[in-house]
Design a protein that fits this description.
By secondary structure, this protein is α/β, with parallel strands linked by helices. It folds into two domains: 216 residues, P-loop containing nucleotide triphosphate hydrolases (Rossmann fold, 3-Layer(aba) Sandwich); 65 residues, Alpha-Beta Plaits, CATH 3.30.70.1340. The chain has eleven helices and 13 strands. Strand 11 and strand 12 form a beta hairpin. It is elongated, with a radius of gyration of 23 Å.
Length: 309
């Protein structure tokens, strides 16, 4: 079931094209990633999806609703955590949640959300006293207070320390397990690899590729690499003819085999039948970073900031 449908979306700011002919769909229960460097058009695209910006061309449907024409209905079923947001420094956690709960007809129980997100012992703390990770937990709570069917999370873990990032990833997975479809905007490769069922790689306002993280990785020079030292010489065709193998090369005493699927098992079993032992064997999976570099021709930088001019 398609929950979000974006068709030929275009958005400009003056002479700058922020989003250029972008199309994608998000299925029910997915964590769908929008991945790319700052300035790639990620935030502009999701702001059009939730109705905060009006596209110059193209169409958007969320749960069958048009974001601008059906704003009131959409607000009841979509939760949003924006890239940049501010709350009054001297509002307490429970006060923030009560305020946001008042915006919805059927809000979630704020006390239950605080318990689920580990904020109960911070309920009487002022917003300004919260750590970065606690503020992000509160952001997730605010995105969920309306009991949405879809949650849009934009650069949720930027600026967090490694442990807080991992904790936040677990929270996102827990939210999905509760039946919420998630549109996740990020410029962190490891985050997309860990969380996303599918990823749209954004580059210069366009989608360079769209697939699962594994699928994107497997597009790059075979996707997986097996590196080993053979105990004796062998005919390269022994491995090159395997359906899992897409390429083979010699690097000094090492042989490197590129391919996909059950590559390591196929290589080991085939060599063994030929009386060859694969010594010092290493299996490497091509990363999403490798895929991005090959598909766009440049590296993904990790500076913080907005992607709009």
């Amino acid at each position: 079931m398609v929950i979000v449908e974006v068709d030929h979306l275009r958005k400009t700011y003056g002479n700058t094209v922020a989003v250029d002919d972008v199309s994608f769909s998000v299925e029910k229960g997915e964590i769908f990633g929008i991945l790319g460097p700052n300035g790639a058009g990620k935030t502009t695209a999701v702001e059009c999806v939730v109705g905060l910006r009006v596209p110059d061309a193209g169409s958007v449907r969320v749960l069958g609703l048009e974001p601008r024409a059906n704003r009131r209905e959409l607000r009841e079923c979509v939760g949003v955590q924006l890239q940049e947001g501010a709350l009054p420094a001297k509002l307490k956690v429970w006060e923030v949640l009560d305020l946001y709960a008042s915006f919805y007809q059927r809000p979630a129980d704020p006390n239950h959300l605080m318990e689920v997100l580990g904020l109960t012992d911070k309920r009487d703390d002022y917003f300004k006293k919260l750590s970065g990770g606690q503020k992000q937990r509160l952001s997730i709570a605010l995105a969920l207070i309306g009991q949405p069917k879809v949650a849009v999370l934009d650069e949720l873990t930027t600026g967090l320390d490694p442990q807080a990032r991992r904790d936040t990833w677990q929270l996102i997975e827990d939210v999905r397990d509760r039946g919420v479809t998630i549109l996740l905007v990020t410029h962190y490769m490891d985050e997309a690899e860990r969380l996303c069922d599918r990823v749209a790689l954004f580059d210069s306002g366009r989608i360079a590729a769209l697939d699962s993280p594994q699928g994107l990785s497997e597009r790059v020079r075979g996707g997986k690499r097996v590196r080993f030292v053979p105990s004796v010489g062998f005919d390269d065709r022994l491995l090159a003819d395997l359906p899992e193998v897409r390429g083979l090369e010699h690097q000094g005493e090492h042989v490197v085999v590129y391919g996909s699927g059950e590559l390591a098992n196929a290589v080991i079993l085939t060599l063994d039948r030929a009386g060859v032992t694969a010594k010092d064997l290493e299996l490497e999976a091509v990363s999403l970073e490798d895929a991005f570099v090959e598909l766009t021709g440049r590296r993904l930088h990790h500076e913080d900031g907005e992607d709009r001019p």
